[in-house]
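Sequence only, no structure available. Ideas?
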Amino acid sequence: MPNKRRKTVKWAGIGATGIADKRTIPEGIMPAENSTVVGVMSAAQDKE
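Reply:
I predicted one. Tokens follow.
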């Protein structure tokens, strides 16, 4: 019998600027029922 429970995929973005902030996270990861964003980090010290 197949397992019908879906596990959650946890995502973290490193250096997430431009395409990640505007497309990948809001349009791809956030709408997915089995995905959650657990962290985002910029490589630049002047960004939070």
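The chain is about 25% helix and 25% strand.
Hope that gets you unstuck.
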